[in-house]
Input
Amino acid sequence: MTEETAQIISSIVIGIGTGLASSLSFLWFMTKVRPSLEISDRVAHNKIEIDGTKHTCFRFKVINKTWKSRIYDVEAQLVLITYINSDTGQDIFMTPIPLIKDKTWSLNKISKSDTHAEYAHQFITLENLHDIWTDKHNIELRVKAKHSFSGFSRTTNKRYYNPTSSLKNGSFKFGNTTDIG
Output
């Protein structure tokens, strides 16, 4: 093998190696650019009036915590989890609980100048959780969103185990907090 052939082969190997390394680095970076959501630890509930009828309204607050980025295609699912005994343990059965609106187009990045807190959203159900949620059940909120830059999605879950400690009468405070006032 001549010196010129060896240099050509060396150049090809280096080119393939650097191309592969840069592609893997870019892919690693893109997997880190995913939505980050905070779901409230407690469920706020209060009475509201719709068409002259009072309803108990249950609210779950979600905040976009993604670093300097908007998220979109935000979807939520609320389920009642029932444990079913089987021969080797417990299986779970999930019953959907309807939300008034289970999707929103987007949530902005957190900004102190955002006077409408468009980085936060409340998912609401009128299903009376007091009637269906007992200590033998759990409730879980699942929220899926896509990152505006990378297009990668992420699902975030929050399970509520006990209605006594998870439900709080009141409404969520405004802005970047999940506190209930």
